[in-house]
Amino acid sequence: MTADSTPTLLVVHHTPSPPTRELLEAVLAGANDPEIAGVTVRSVPALGATIPDVLAADGYLFGTTANFGYMSGALKHFFDTVYYPCLDAVAGRPYGLWVHGNNDTAGAVTAVQKIVTGLALTQAAGVVEITGGVDAAARERCYELGATVAVTIAPE
User: Fold this and answer.
1) What is the DSSP secondary-structure string of the chain?
2) Segments making up each domain of the chain, as ranges
3) Class at the top of the CATH hierarchy for domain 8-153
């Protein structure tokens, strides 16, 4: 972020189902909480997010389904695309992660954490893992995740 620009929170997600879309909307609502001023929130599907998107952002939120014990192919493609070109440029920037699975999210969480560790990103909030249906508690956890990461990059 330069002195004359607004910090940007990049939300990279793969949300193909109604439950994952609902979680994304909760994350975005939290990141755009009216009490958090001075942060631009950009939501970009994983298959559309680019190297310039990553380099221009000051923090990140990643959202994915858990598919066959792993993150979605779309989010993996995103990381494959941006990893080396962004490797040294993003170190220390904050991130948050939410994962939705029908019955297990552990493999997807582990896979994303390995990649963000390699990028030297800083975890700004606990991982939100949701299995099964989406209820008010799940939406609230995602709202808090979005707000927490947005606050970490908000100007003082």
Assistant:
1) --TTS--EEEEEE---SHHHHHHHHHHHHHHT-TTS-S-EEEEEETTT--HHHHHH-SEEEEEEEEETTEE-HHHHHHHHHHHHHHTTTSTT-EEEEEEEESS--HHHHHHHHHHHHHTT-EE-S--EEEESS--HHHHHHHHHHHHHHHHHHS--
2) 8-153
3) alpha beta
